[in-house]
């Protein structure tokens, strides 16, 4: 990719017009909001709040219940859902309000992200302040955001039919798209705020960077499958699973080729293996850069990446160990799970930062633009 060919969410071109820094800071704000959105989404999942609102209303859903009659109507609809009938049959209206508000905030925050993206985008476009070549990329990012909202509802709808749980496949797709959007926003913002050109790394190290990024993405998606299947509630020991490296029920004949995706033991095992391989790959890349002639910016970026992956790995171990035979109180369980999800976002941030820092600094970056 060259500085004159920005692509969707991957632009790293030097600013071509005044206002590039303003656009960059705007995208950084949107990226921060997406970071928060993913954390809020983790909270809704961990508190079983995600299925509390059984309808999708893009405009009317912006308003919360304003009267007791509104609350009763919403509660009556929730009482028809599988979650109420099979999981919380004794839930009172007061209890319903507690889970409702978190899902409401989750959806409202998503709408707010769309507003914070669309309105400044139209203003920058009307004023001619979007850097050359970035218009289609930014429009594509907005389209991905709209797709993410639709995918979120498709995910929720999967838990409103027969079983009181969303499809773990749809959960993985929803989380994966959110993190892809975040990474694209952050990368584009960095490219505008601190323009850089081609990679300064040797070809071999560039291949390792791509491998590390792919491993991070696969590990996070595997973690989403663990969350969707509640596979973290079994085999709460580390590093062994049931006293063995590979759990005894790793393969279930009735599942066949679906074992890697449907068998909870296999899903958790794969997440552990991917996390360990990712940790080792990041450490190996860091060591290669320290031994070579990589610039200080790349070496520092690699150090931040090591810190992020070690933090996330440790959080994963704590999560596994705390959900043992005596699960922690709900508040602690929610806190641990939320920290682990936030850790994934921190890891993505470090990976994007490192990949950007491993490029040639553009001399024009020091020239202030309006």
SSE map:
Layout (H helix, E strand, L loop, with lengths): L19 H27 L21 H11 L3 H5 L6 H34 L8 H23 L10 H26 L2 E4 L3 H27 L29 H4 L1 H28 L4 H27 L7 H28 L1 E3 L9
Antiparallel strand pairs: 1-2
Helix pairs in contact: 1-4, 1-6, 1-11, 4-5, 5-6, 6-7, 6-11, 7-9, 7-11, 9-10, 10-11
Global shape: flat
Helix content: 55-70%
How many distinct beta strands?
Answer: 2
Could you tell me the mean pLDDT?
87
* Low-confidence parts: 1-16, 365-370
Roughly what fraction of the amino acids lie in strands? under 5%
Question: How many discrete domains?
Answer: 2
Biggest pleated-sheet summary: 2 strands, antiparallel
From the helix content, strand content and strand pairing, which structural class follows?
mainly alpha
End-to-end Cα distance = 26 Å
Cα-based radius of gyration, to the nearest Å: 22 Å
Structural account:
This protein has 370 residues and is mainly α. The chain folds into two domains: 12-193, no CATH class; 199-370. It is built from eleven helices and two strands. The chain has helices at residues 20-46, 68-78, 82-86, 93-126, 135-157, 168-193, 203-229, 259-262, 264-291, 296-322, 330-357, and strands at 196-199, 359-361. Strands 1-2 form a two-stranded antiparallel sheet. The chain is flat and about 65 Å long. The chain starts with 19 loop residues before the first helix and ends in a 9-residue tail after the last strand. 37% of the residues are buried. The model is unreliable at 1-16 and 365-370 (pLDDT under 50).
């Amino acid at each position: 990719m060259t500085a004159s060919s920005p692509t969707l969410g991957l632009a790293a071109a030097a600013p071509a017009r005044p206002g590039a820094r303003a656009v960059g800071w705007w995208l950084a704000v949107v990226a921060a909001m997406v970071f928060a959105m993913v954390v809020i989404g983790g909270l809704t999942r961990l508190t079983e709040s995600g299925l509390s609102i059984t309808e999708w209303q893009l405009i009317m859903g912006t308003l919360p219940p304003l009267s007791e009659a509104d609350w009763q109507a919403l509660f009556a609809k929730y009482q028809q859902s599988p979650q109420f009938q099979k999981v919380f049959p004794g839930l009172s209206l007061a209890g319903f309000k507690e889970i409702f508000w978190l899902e409401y905030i989750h959806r409202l925050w998503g709408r707010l992200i769309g507003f914070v993206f669309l309105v400044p985008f139209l203003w920058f476009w009307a004023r001619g302040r979007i850097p050359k070549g970035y218009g289609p990329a930014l429009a594509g990012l907005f389209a991905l955001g709209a797709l993410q909202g639709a995918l979120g509802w498709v995910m929720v709808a999967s838990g409103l039919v027969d079983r009181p749980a969303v499809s773990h496949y749809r959960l993985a797709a929803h989380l994966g798209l959110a993190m892809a959007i975040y990474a694209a926003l952050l990368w584009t913002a960095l490219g505008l705020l601190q323009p850089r050109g081609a990679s300064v790394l040797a070809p071999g190290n560039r291949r390792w960077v791509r491998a590390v990024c792919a491993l991070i993405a696969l590990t996070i998606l595997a973690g989403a499958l663990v969350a969707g299947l509640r596979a973290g509630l079994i085999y709460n020991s580390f590093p062994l699973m049931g006293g063995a490296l590979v759990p005894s029920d790793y393969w279930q004949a009735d599942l066949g080729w679906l074992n890697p995706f449907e068998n909870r033991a296999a899903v958790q095992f794969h997440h552990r293996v991917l996390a360990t391989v990712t940790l080792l790959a990041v450490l190996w890349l860091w060591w290669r850069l320290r031994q070579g002639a990589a610039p200080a910016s790349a070496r520092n970026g690699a150090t931040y990446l090591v810190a992020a992956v070690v933090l996330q790995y440790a959080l994963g171990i704590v999560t596994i160990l705390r959900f043992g035979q005596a699960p922690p109180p709900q508040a602690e369980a929610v806190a641990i799970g939320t920290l682990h999800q936030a850790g994934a976002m921190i890891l993505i941030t470090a990976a994007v930062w490192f990949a950007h820092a491993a490029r040639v600094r553009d001399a024009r970056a020091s020239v202030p633009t309006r």
